Amino acid sequence: MNFWQEISAVLEYHTLIFKGLGATLLITVGAFLIGQVLGVVTATIKVARNNNRNVFLKILNALASAYVTVIRGTPVVVQLLLMYFVILGASPFLNPLIVAIAVFGINSGAYVAETMRGGILSVDKGQMEAGRSLGLSFPKTMVKVVVPQATKNSLPALFNELIALLKETSVAGYITVVDLTRAFEKISNNETSAIVPYIMLAVIYLVIVGILTLIIRQIEKRLQNDRN
């Protein structure tokens, strides 16, 4: 078969390809949302520790620091394997897709935490003081005043995390999830050549990243115009 015939042969597996694409996007979006929540909470705890001598907060800070250190210090594929095969025991009742979303979300949260911590520290201290002077508690001031500004300051880094997360999901197949990469791996096993399927896989990832990049640039331009 020539190159175009091989492309046509791969496209006959369009149902499998779309299934894999859907799984990849679902894992990416779900994990990103979980990561944002975990990241903001963890960052807030770590920053609050510097302004409070509460023993309970010290314990939370120690746990938050341990979480960030362990997750950032180990490969996501190892975390995925440990969670699915060791911690959860690869039970037949488990949904691998849900496990993948949770693991990638936990992994993303550790990176978002450091990004958001930097964003929170970049907000002028006067903002916190202004909120407290209006009678808001520390948590309310963080949620209503500081975190929104920190998020805006951290948007470029957060968007980069989204793109990185999309590409990291390619290892989800290790726990039997039929994501985009796993789908093309199956296709390559059924074809005489693996070159064309994997080239098409790379192109699809490139297109998705390109679309995300364009969307991100438009959002950043709009935010920049709002600031001006």
Would you kindly provide a written description of the structure presented here, covering whatever features stand out?
The termini are far apart. The chain is flat. Helix 2 (14-49) packs antiparallel against helix 7 (138-168) and helix 5 packs across helix 7 (138-168). The mean pLDDT is 88. The protein contains 9 helices and no strands. It has 228 residues and is mainly α.
Give the N-terminus to C-terminus distance in angstroms: 57 Å
What overall geometry do the principal axes of the alpha carbons give? flat
Tell me about the largest β-sheet. Answer: none
Low-pLDDT parts are: none
Q: What integer is the average pLDDT?
A: 88
Computed Rg: 21 Å
How much helicity do the residues have?
A: over 70%
Beta content: under 5%
Structural class: mainly alpha
Number of helices: 9
Would you count the extended β strands for me? Answer: 0
What is the ordering of alpha helices and beta strands?
A: HHHHHHHHH
What is the topology?
Layout: H1 3-11, H2 14-49, H3 55-73, H4 76-87, H5 96-122, H6 125-133, H7 138-168, H8 180-190, H9 195-227
Helix pairs in contact: 2-3, 2-5, 2-7, 2-8, 3-5, 4-5, 5-7, 6-7, 7-9, 8-9
Short note summarizing the structure:
This protein has helices at residues 3-11, 14-49, 55-73, 76-87, 96-122, 125-133, 138-168, 180-190, 195-227.
What are the main properties of this structure?
228 residues, flat, mainly alpha, 9 helices
